[in-house]
Design a protein that fits this description.
single chain; alpha/beta; Aspartate Aminotransferase, domain 1; Aspartate Aminotransferase, domain 2; seven-stranded mixed β-sheet; three-stranded antiparallel β-sheet; 12 strands; binds pyridoxal-5'-phosphate
């Protein structure tokens, strides 16, 4: 067989490999504490589950429009208005099976040999994977510890060239937990006036997970870039619905039909019952979301203090999402070796920073989507393992 060369450039998400090894160890009788996985440890709120079941009972068993049923797209538009006072037309919303397909579609639209796409490093690994698969050059935007893992607008603007087609941004961010201050967005958007051909892809999937005084900055509220802006959001993290596979994006009016055509070529539509559950999530009570975020905030403070008490670790306070990203260079080990050591010996799953880009060397990602007790126990185990 001769498979297409592009596939040599397709990367992966190594968090899934860690997950598989953690499951093997668990099956072999070890009690693995999983701080490697990027999904809430809460169940989907009951009223959402019930709405999905009701949709099945009511006979919603068939195909739906490829861009999503209208009541769901209307609910998405109303939700952006409620949360951010952002005007979104339902025709610009394309519903997808999760957040990832939007990345796939967006990067496919702009990426080709000769094009340059800027992406955050450390960042969600699928960005770089997809850019390289498309044949475009992947240009890293370095997120630095000293900037609390925000990008620097000046640095991003200096990286733009006539070949730049797309800039990928993600705040609050995976894996660093950084939340970009509004001043940096303001400066970046002002500078982009000089580059009217460059599109912006803003991954805002963690928009409801912000801590302290921080407020989410959605790029939807910068009218000057709306005609070249794609905003990804979704249900996976906010409503603990990772396995349902439901996400969406707001596209410029001219790109929404292209995204819809890609959906027709790819998956036809999201299953109907999940779309109905998605409406219940957006239109129903939000208390479960607030409670989950409050729990993450409490764990965030616990994990940052605990990580800083490990010799050789240094952890800045994450502003959003549910990840801590300590600098582990003081241990004298590289990220992958330390990830493997603490998985095999302490039975704690984490993900090496290098899984998120070359700039992640010297860091480990800890997801604090786990109980306080487990977080405390995990840190004790790591300390024991490192002192042996
Ligand atoms: N964007 C970011 C930054 C993520 O961390 C993730 C999942 O981990 C996604 C998008 C994809 O979400 P989904 O599971 O809905 O595809």
């Amino acid at each position: 067989m001769k498979i297409a060369k592009n596939l040599n450039h397709l990367g992966t998400e190594s968090a899934f490999e860690v997950l598989a090894r953690a499951a093997e160890l668990d099956n072999a009788g070890h009690n693995v504490i999983n701080l490697g996985i990027g999904q809430p440890d809460f169940k989907t709120p009951n009223h959402i589950v019930e709405a999905g079941i009701k949709a099945l009972r009511d006979g919603h068993h068939g195909y739906t429009p490829a861009n999503g049923i209208l009541p769901l797209r209307e609910a998405v538009a109303a939700d952006f208005q409620r949360r951010h006072r952002a005007d979104v037309h339902p025709d610009c919303v394309v519903v997808q099976p999760g957040g990832k397909p939007t990345m796939f579609f967006c990067i496919s639209m702009f990426g080709e040999p000769g094009a340059e796409i800027l992406y955050p490093d450390p960042g969600f690994p699928i960005y770089k994977s997809m850019i390289e698969y498309s044949g475009a050059s992947a240009i890293p935007i370095l997120l630095k510890e000293e900037n609390e893992f925000s990008f620097s607008a000046d640095e991003v603007l200096a990286q733009i060239t006539p070949q730049t087609r797309l800039i990928i941004l993600n705040s609050p961010a995976n894996p660093c937990g950084g939340a970009v201050p509004k001043s940096q967005f303001d400066q970046l958007i002002a500078g982009l006036a000089k580059w009217p051909e460059v599109a912006i892809f803003s991954d805002e999937i963690y928009s409801q997970m912000l801590y302290g005084e921080r407020e989410h900055v959605t790029l939807l509220n910068y009218p000057e870039i709306r005609d070249r802006l794609i905003v990804l959001d979704g249900w996976s993290k906010t409503y603990a619905m990772t396995g349902w596979r439901l996400g969406c994006a707001v596209w410029p009016r001219e790109l929404a039909p292209i995204a819809t055509r890609l959906a027709i070529n790819c998956h036809s539509c999201v299953n109907a019952m999940t779309q109905h559950a998605g409406i219940a999530a957006l239109e129903g009570p939000q208390e479960a979301v607030y409670k989950m975020v409050a729990a993450f905030d409490e764990r965030r403070r616990i994990i940052v203090d605990s990580l800083n008490s490990i010799e050789g670790f240094q952890c800045v306070e994450p502003g959003g999402a549910f990840y801590a990203f300590p600098n582990i260079s003081g241990t004298g080990m590289d990220a992958k070796s330390l990830q493997n050591l603490i998985l095999e010996k302490a039975h704690v799953a984490t993900v090496a920073g290098t899984a998120f880009g070359d700039n992640g060397e010297g860091f480990l990602r800890f997801s604090y989507a786990n109980s306080k007790e487990n977080i405390i126990e995990a840190i004790d185990r790591i300390k024991d393992c490192l002192t042996k």
